Amino acid sequence: MAEKERVETSEAQIAVHWQEEGYYYPSTKFVAQANMTDETIYERFSLDNFPNCYKEYADLLEWYEYWHTILDTSDAPCWKWFVGGKINASHNCIDRHLKNHKNKTAIHFVPELEEEKTEHITYQELYVRVNEFAAILRDFAGLKKGDRVTLHMPMCAELPITMLACARLGIIHSEVFGGFSGRACADRIVDSQSNVLITMDAYYRNGKLLDHKQNADIALKLAKEDGQIVDKVLVWQRYPGKNSSPAPMVENRDYFVNDLLKDYYGARVAPVPIAAEDPLFLMYTSGTTGKPKGCQHSTAGYLAYATGTSKYILDIHPEDVYWCMADIGWITGHSYIVYGPLSLGASTIIFEGVPTYPDAGRAWRIAQDLDVNIFHTAPTTIRALRKIGPDEPAKYNYHFKHMTTVGEPIEPEVWKWYHKEVGKGEAIIVDTWWQTETGGFLCSTMPAITPMKPGSAGPAVPGIHPVIYDEEGEILAAGSGKAGNICIQNPWPGAFQTIWGDRDRFVSTYYERYNKDPNSKDWRDWPYLTGDAAVQAEDGYYRILGRIDDVINVSGHRLGTKEIESAALVVEEVAEAAVVPVAHDIKGKEPDLYIALKPGVEPSEALSKKISDAICEEIGKIAKPRFVLLVKDMPKTRSGKIMRRVLSSISNNKDVGDVTTLANPEIVTEIQEMMKKK
Ligand code: WT7
Asked: Could you identify the atom of ligand 1 that is nearest to the CA of residue 546?
């Protein structure tokens, strides 16, 4: 390959030295069965046909009252979709399938222990269980439309049952990833003002039954200190009828759902017609600064977008067996384990555990036994499976027609392994780029229409119109070889509506940067800032380079540096903390934590561990730093700013560059020496 020409860039731009990969094409067999093979879809969803094109997605749903206004921009940039419509997400994911499919599996729940049997929940059974639990929410917990309820649940069938029971009544669910700490749960309870918490006693991870109920006790105590009282805790049981947690049940506060259910046997709760733009759920996400943001997703727009993209990009048909290995505690699980697949009447798999327990063949045994034909996971998992079990997929007789990668950029080498070994050269791959905020996909190839290109997310999906700006607001054209801030020019139905309780932050974080007129009611004046850096190739395909700011993406999970640093500062002895991302061959990135101690405090191993433990406690194990380095001082600019760039170079064994302008250049060599000893 010829050496790439050097691209001249200004300081406002990012140069990209990128080797173009060749195309991969779908098989005729795949194309023959695909949901979308009509290339005119791009034309139908062009800007000329915006916003009316999204009627196609709205029409995939059943409505109590059809909408009259497709897009209302009067409260820009809080867009309202399908105004006037009344709908219920629980009805669309369950009731509407009963007529033809009641005896079909909606959810396969696969326990982590292989000796435990997979549970197959039919649409009829899902209907029964959701109705009975909805009755508990309404009649026992006293919840009603518009109330928020926090869920802190692991991967189990009871999680979508709980979500869909909330949706049935218009209760806004806010699920906190099960692996998050009691502290993280408390912050989200407080921010959303929930007075009911729904949790589970225990779950399996890596062969161990973990006590999860204890987190509820911590969360309630901390939430109370911050002024939010939770008066009821509903506890699902990993083994119905048996308590698997040593944490005591608090009288008149904690209730086992399985005890309550006895009083609600046979209860039926009619789905409540919900206004299209009423919220369906909150999903908290970290930013670089400040507290986590509660992304508020709408009912109709969100569901229409999750359904449409599941149908055309994931190519889900009602007869497919679909397995997304993400956690429902993240947006991927909400859109593409629960709402999208169930809205389409497919069978969706919920796997409790890790794909490497008890060995690296586990995932492929599940795929073989359930005859999975659509598979969805993240680069971090692909890298892990590639590392520990490169020959495992070939040992099992499963056949995927379609695979997804999501969450972070995938290296072309890893993509090729995924295609050849996991996909057995048969499956097509979609590399879907999107965010918690966007509700559904932004960029991806259309599986039967646009060819794949390893490492590249592909063109925008129909109806999404990106633009890449440099720092100055100049548009970077396709093929320029320069990366910049990728923005979306137009609204779309899946986009979040606001940050819960903080409209100003919503506007300033996502819309202020390239806004053309703050008083404008025209969507053309409000490009949506994704916060990612991207480059567009000559053929229109986008390659995402990661966050413009320095959020650390560990195993596909976005962690705010500020959140980690704040957690470190909880430890009394800590004066300053700086987190930088370090490349990790499986997790993608992992955090290194630099700590400056308060004067007079002696560094010690015990103290490093205490700080590391504090982070696991405050945020969760996922944020555990690789190293905690207790340094004498942080490298700082003369104005006192910590030079994260320098720390990051040290952590990643890179040249630190010119440090002579620092206030304390001598510290750099000292830290480099420390790192060498690690
Ligand atoms: C950030 C969003 C989308 C659900 C999972 C993560 C990165 C996501 C890709 C991809 C390159 C990707 C971006 C994005 N990202 N998918 N296919 N290729 N980067 O949701 O936690 O909100 O994170 O993940 O940086 O902004 P999230």
From this structure: 25
- Of 408, 359, 352, 398, the residue nearest 375 (C-alpha): 398
Pocket of ligand 1 (CB under 6 A): 285, 330-332, 406-409, 431-436, 457, 530, 532, 544, 546-547, 558
The pLDDT tens digits for 173-197 are 999 999 889 999 999 999 999 999 9
Total residues found in the chain within this entry: 678
Distance CA 628, CA 84 (A): 54
Q: Which residue has the tokens 């369906």?
A: 280
Task: Map residue 57 onto helix, strand or coil.
Answer: helix
The answer to whether the CB of 406 falls within 8 A of the CB of 432 is: yes
pLDDT value of position 7: 63
Distance CA 189, CA 193 (A): 6
DSSP letters spanning 594-626: EEEEPTTPPP-HHHHHHHHHHHHHHTBGGG--S
Which tokens is 669 given?
Answer: 């060599």
Q: For all residues of the chain together, what is the average pLDDT?
A: 93
Distance 463 CA to ligand 1 centre (A): 19
In angstroms, what is the span from residue 433 Cα to ligand 1's centroid? Answer: 6
Using an 8 Å Cβ cutoff, are 176 and 151 in contact? yes
Pick the closest to residue 158 from 83, 85, 237, 223 (CA basis): 237
Which range (23-37, 62-76, 402-416, 485-499) has the least confidence? 402-416
Q: Provide the whole-model pTM.
A: 0.88
- The answer to whether 177 and 329 have CB atoms below 8 angstroms apart is yes
Q: Which DSSP letter does residue 436 get?
A: G
Centroid of ligand 1 to alpha carbon of 549 (angstroms) = 13
d(CA 327, CA 622): 13
355-366 average pLDDT score: 95
pLDDT tens column, 369-426: 999 999 999 988 898 888 888 899 999 999 999 999 998 888 888 899 999 999 999 9
Residue 662 has pLDDT above 90, yes or no: no
For 457, the token pair is 């997310």
Residue 630's nearest CA partner among 596, 655, 665 is: 596
Residue 458's Cα: distance from chain center in Å? 20
Question: pLDDT grade, residue 554 (50/70/90)?
Answer: confident
DSSP 620: B
Half-sphere exposure of 179 (CA within 13 A, CB side): 20
Both structure tokens of 149: 């309820």
Distance 178 CA to ligand 1 centre (A): 20
Report how far ligand 1's centroid is from the alpha carbon of 557 (Å).
8
CA-nearest residue for atom 19, ligand 1, is 408
